[in-house]
Amino acid sequence: MITTLTQISEESQPLVPDPVSKTVLMLPKCNDNELPLDTNGNISKSEPTVEKIEETKEISDISDISDVEDNVENNNNVENIKDNAESIKNEKPLPHYEKYKFLFWEFETPVIWVSVFFITLWHVLSVYMCCTFPLFDKIPLVIYATIIGGISGFGVTGGAHRYFTHKSYKARLPLKIILLICYSVAGQNTLYDWVRDHRVHHKFSETDADPHNAKRGFFFSHVGWLMMRKHPEVIRKGRMINLTDITGDPLVAFHVKYWFWFKLFFCFVIPSSIPPLLWGESWYHSICAICFVRYVISLNSTWAVNSFAHFFGNKPYDNYIRPAENLTVSFFAMGEGYHNYHHTFPWDYRAAEVGQMLNVTTLWLNFFEKIGWAYELRAPSSDLIQRITRNRGDGSHEKWGHEVPDTYSCPVATEVRKEQ
Ligand SMILES: [Zn+2]
Ligand SMILES: [Zn+2]
Question: Which residues cross the membrane (predicted)?
Answer without folding.
Answer: 111-135, 141-161, 258-279
